[in-house]
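Hi there, hope your week has been kind to you so far. Do you reckon you could talk me through the fold, stretch by stretch? I've dropped the whole record in just underneath, so have a look:
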Amino acid sequence: MARVPVAAPHHIRRASATLARRYRALRPRPAAELVPTPRSWLRTLGMAAVVLLGAWLGLLAVGDVRVPVGPMDTTMALRPSLTGGTKINVSPLGDLRLNSHEAPVRLDVTVDQLDPVRAQALVDHPERISGLQQEIAHDVAHGTLDLAVRSCVAVVLGATGLALAVYRRPRRALAAGGLALALLAVSGGTAYATWNPKSVLEPKFSGLLSSAPSLVGNARNIVTEFDVYQKELARLVTNVTKLYDVTSTLPAYEPDPTTIRVLHVSDIHLNPASWKIIASLVEQYRIDVIVDSGDTMDHGTAAENGFLDPIADLGAPYVWVRGNHDSRTTQRYLERMKNVHVLDDGRAVTIAGLRFAGTGDPQFTPDRSVAPGGDRAEELAGARLAAALRDQKAAGTPVDIAIAHEPVAARETDGEVPLVLAGHVHHEATEIMKYGTRLRIEGSTGGSGLRAVERPDPDPIETSVLYLDRDTRRLQAWDEIRLGGLGRTTAEVARHLVEDNRPGTGATPGATPSAATPSTRPGADPSGSRGTPVPTTP
């Protein structure tokens, strides 16, 4: 009788298979099998790439933390780096780098803006400055802890999500997340072990901040003389806060539609508040053209060029000549802007019905390698401008307004043009010269820039609106606009009426020779009603 084979029960077969696998795992393997194959190397490198890329993407997506530090709003973030350290961005001035640690991660701190509420609190209660150091230390510590937690979550989610998308296996995705967390922990431990608190004494500056040590002293002096620094910081915060408050409170004026309105600005010297003031005046006075008689910059470096970008949005054509603080690099940057007309070497242009001609300053004082030419160089530049004016007149296209930065150069145009504009001296003045040309010198529309915080009585912010007859293209009147400067909260607008030019009248700073009290409220009749300067408080 034949024997029929009987299949083993299911659980017996499964146990046998398990024993077989364990036996094969315990069996000694040939040496050839122990050598990693190219395929295994590729798998390892692929996993490493996924972990690194996923962690980096996670940090970019959710790794930033907004932290208030004293009166400032900042953003902190961790970024991959071969050198480590800390980078503090102060846009648009540049950044400073601290050799704070050595690890494959860098701490980025971006100063976003000055919080007006907290800054005003310091202004109203100067005694709080004494505790500002402890407050900032507490804010930074709190922000760093928050950043560490958020970064851990970010790298785990980034690496896990990317591994799941690539491999589609939960185990590998979890392994990638664990590796990313371990990598961040090792980096953090390395940074902690190599932390150098003294790095703040030796920062590396870039951009406009590269001149900071020469302006405010090096960091070592600030640390050793912190009491003095606290007082200067309080004064700086006070002045800047009040400046920005007053710029939006200028009086309104309804212009006469029969006049051409020219806004004359000069010597802005990198003051960012100037652009807000100019934009406000262009809108309120319906300015037809803006004339800048130079020194828009302070050092003329390429790093400063970004400061000029708001010119494109001022809402009016912008006529510009180079000052002694503006470089050829500055000039080339402005020449590429659509609404800017750069005048140099007597070049003439017609805008809004007026013909302008101008020349750049022949001297560039920030370049210490070039010996300044003094008044002689200015006189030669002015003589070339005067010759260009004569050529324009001979060609039947006489110039209405000439522009030079230095008054010394501008005086050489006497008799060749009805009106010449200049700046440089940081105070307003009007002079009718010997042969009848009116010289109008503008003050500093930037309040002398950063120099304003170096003296107890800062320079005022000054600019003028010129009214010219549309038919004769001659000056009829002008409004002098003056803000009280850093730390002051008044604004004045004074109307000046033009009488016939009388040769030899002489110079009268800020007034026409015949106007005893030439001040009036904006919006008054240009025919000559007079009043008092208008104070404006925020």
About this structure: The first strand starts at residue 65 and ends at 69. Residues 345 and 359 are 5 Å apart (CA to CA). The chain has two domains: 43-210, 220-366+375-501.
